[in-house]
């Protein structure tokens, strides 16, 4: 398979690129775990008996303390329950099951941003998890308690997650890039008894002061938190020395250093056997309205999805070195760092820092140094690294890579082709994986070695996933390339169970649009004549910035919380690297600022939003107006604002606009 002709010219139209297809290379197909006939057989079994199919996989793939007798309980649909009377432990399934045969194998290869490298075998990881699980128990943390994890991307983050799973505590990881205020909201919503953090982490050559942010979050609120575990990380790197120790004040009675907490703990901890439906974790994600929602996942169903998809989509074998670049603060870092690869017994790579530190070759240097064979990242990273040119990756030996993956947003064909040609050397399949925080595991993706791929398409649903595209009435859209709502017709084991503390919102958000007939993903999509899916993006007011979900309303609320701001509307506009950029239109209290005053306020507002929500939510543009465009009924005309943000001609009907004169002002 050669794509030299396609890449000879830089300005191939996307139409032309989209017509290209890449059948699996014969060599890859011959060695692949899942052959065409295996995949066909799985699809056949799933179609013939969808519930029995999952039951069979759950029996074969998971180690049960007590086997379930009923696979699916739909008596409370759409609050589905899977394998409900079964009992197991997720950490046991990720670690203990490998000890006898593979205990000596590497589970985690870690590289810190400063260059420090650590390896943990399955046996060592198991011991660390047990010690920390015992430390949690010593502080009174029990089954069902919520534990918030706010850490850098270091092995202890995975240890903390696995330790919670081991004792049946429910973790909620909060991305280290989120602000103290966002952390506080999440701690309070979850009612956490414990927070696990670090003195800091390395990012772009700087220390991210996690403990300081946690202290701020806990200073005015979070009454449920009794214990804060603090990992010494930035000091451990030997760079900050005594300075960092002094800068990490500990609150007596509440705070405890990780190393002190585990010092006397035994390296064995009997797993807490929990019901299949016991919540494994909450993960907060943005929606179109309201506060972030705590997506609640189960133990058995979630693990089954994470494990199977790791093997099916990444074709992992014991000798693979798998690097998923996601932070554990996102669902990708749950399913394809902390759980799936361990359940599958693979070796995984974790890297703490920025992709461009100290330069744009860092990812490729890591791939070379650690012999990465399967590499999974986001289109935003691919685009950013592509911009630096082909010479940077050319300095590194990437010949061990045999499979590439993409996740988080639609990958534009140009980035796909570059990834394929420059990183994959033209020989590696690319798996473009569509899924969501809510789905728990990959849903639509190629099976490498079997599926023919097309740049920009996530291809076809995995066996057991009954995806479809429907119109406004809920009728299946069968005409090729006609758009509609992406839905899932049947429940699947790794699906979310509810929204923590707000089941009404769960029903409303995912099920009510089509009267509980199917799960509504919130994405628009179309399907081509070969049955391949093309995701068109969100149909609601959710932005996708650098592969991360941001609710427009959250950013608007943050802006109006500023004393100078009376009103705000946030929309997305296309961005070359981040996919989408945040664009804010604001109305000030008092006079509308112009010139230097506007520039100064813009800086202040950007910092303000970073402070309220985190740096990823910072608006790229802020425009000032005397009014926002509204219909006579008072609704902000978002479509109009989107056109303005994109610099497009206004084509929509503005006859209902209260104040047409402000359009020029908005254009800025
Ligand atoms: C939303 C989910 C799933 C992990 C990362 C994001 C978009 C995700 C793809 C893809 C096109 C994609 C969708 C989806 N998305 N993967 N391969 N192609 N779009 O998780 O924050 O829950 O966001 O990301 O819009 O709904 P998330």
Task: Outline the structure in words.
With 668 residues, the chain is of the alpha/beta class. The protein has 23 helices and 30 strands. The protein has an eight-stranded mixed sheet with strand order 12-11-8-6-7-14-15-23, sandwiched between helices. A seven-stranded mixed sheet has the order 5-4-17-16-18-19-20, sandwiched between helices. A four-stranded antiparallel sheet has the order 21-22-24-25, with no helix packed on it. α6 runs antiparallel to α7, α6 crosses α8 and α13 packs across α14.
The computed structural class is alpha/beta
**pLDDT < 50 stretches:** 1-17
Strand content: 15-25%
Q: Whole-Å distance between the termini?
A: 49 Å
Give me the number of helical elements: 23
What are the distinct ligands in this entry?
Answer: 5'-O-[(S)-butoxy(hydroxy)phosphoryl]adenosine
Radius of gyration: 25 Å
Kindly state the mean pLDDT as a whole number?
A: 93
Largest sheet: 8 strands, mixed
Name the shape in a single word: globular
Oligomeric assembly: single chain
Summarize the amount of helix as a percent range.
25-40%
Strand order of the largest sheet: 12-11-8-6-7-14-15-23
Number of strand elements: 30
Can you give keywords for this protein?
668 residues; alpha/beta; seven-stranded mixed beta sheet; 34% helix; disordered N terminus; binds 5'-O-[(S)-butoxy(hydroxy)phosphoryl]adenosine
How are the SSEs placed, and which strands pair?
Layout (H helix, E strand, L loop, with lengths): L3 H5 L5 H5 L7 H6 L4 H13 L1 H12 L10 E2 L7 E2 L4 E2 L1 H13 L3 E6 L5 E5 H17 L7 E5 L4 H13 L2 E4 L6 H11 L3 E5 L2 E3 L2 E3 L1 H10 L7 E5 L10 H5 L8 E3 H6 L10 E2 L5 E5 L7 E5 L2 H15 L6 E4 L6 H13 L3 E5 L10 H9 L3 E4 L1 H9 L3 H4 L8 E5 L5 H11 L6 E4 L33 E4 L12 E6 L9 E2 L3 H8 L8 E9 L5 E6 L3 E4 L2 E4 H9 L4 E11 L3 E10 L6 H18 L8 E4 L13 H8 L16 H6 L1
Parallel strand pairs: 4-17, 6-7, 6-8, 7-14, 8-11, 11-12, 16-17, 16-18, 18-19, 19-20, 29-30
Antiparallel strand pairs: 1-2, 3-13, 4-5, 9-10, 14-15, 15-23, 21-22, 22-24, 24-25, 26-27, 28-29
Helix pairs in contact: 4-5, 6-7, 6-8, 6-14, 7-8, 9-10, 13-14, 16-18
Bound molecules: 5'-O-[(S)-butoxy(hydroxy)phosphoryl]adenosine.
